[in-house]
Input
Amino acid sequence: QVQLVESGGGLVQAGGSLRLSCAASGSIFGGNEMGWYRQAPGNQRDLVAAITSGGTTSYADSVKGRFTISRENAKNTMNLQMNSLKPEDTAVYYCYYRRARTYWGQGTQVTVSS
Output
């Protein structure tokens, strides 16, 4: 089992920044992938960014150049630095850990006001 705890969501004005963090505990092994999905009301859950334990990153086109994902394997933590936020970034952000199966965090609300 893997437990994920997110932090760092909140309310910010357009153009501002937020930093989300995700702390993983439990049965953490190498060869995994961690990342973030987001879900706005009435929408499906979409991938925002991902990072492998080897450090390979990928981003949704809508956040490229604005968001940066990083992780510290020794601490089992992952961060998402979100800059130049837009109202359309408003959503609940979910951290995930994937290795054979996917584990999810509880979600953290990000609200960007115009």
Remarks:
- The longest strand covers residues 18-26.
- The two ends are 40 Å apart (CA to CA).
